[in-house]
Amino acid sequence: MADTVTVTYFAALADRTGRRREELAVPERTVGGVRAAVAGRHGPAVGELARLSAVLDGDRLLRDDADPVGAAVDLLPPFAGG
């Protein structure tokens, strides 16, 4: 049985998914599970961007696919700037 995670998208991910927030059924409640669910829902190009993104779970910034996540996360694509 899949868990549900609320994902909030920022910057390019919000643009490419066409939404700011959504609930996703994830195969497991981990960073990798969230990334897989995003790719499955929005296709390989968005999935690749999600793979390069960091996941913010409360005040924890996560990048490792094995890291566990809670019920709501923010997906932060790489930012450029100066």
Mind explaining what this structure looks like?
The protein has 82 residues and is α+β, with helices and mostly antiparallel strands. 34% of the residues lie in helices and 30% in strands. Helix 2 packs antiparallel against helix 3.
H/E topology pattern: EHEHHEEE
Question: What does the average pLDDT come to?
Answer: 93
Major sheet: arrangement of strands: 2-1-5-3-4
Largest sheet: 5 strands, mixed
Distance between the termini: 44 Å
What spatial form do the alpha-carbon principal axes imply?
A: globular
Tags for this model:
82 residues; alpha+beta; five-stranded mixed sheet; 3 helices; 5 strands; 34% helix; globular
Summarize the structure.
This protein has 82 residues and is of the alpha+beta class. It is 34% helix and 30% strand.
Structural topology:
Blueprint: E1 3-9, H1 11-17, E2 21-26, H2 31-42, H3 44-52, E3 54-57, E4 60-62, E5 72-76
Parallel strand pairs: 1-5
Antiparallel strand pairs: 1-2, 3-4, 3-5
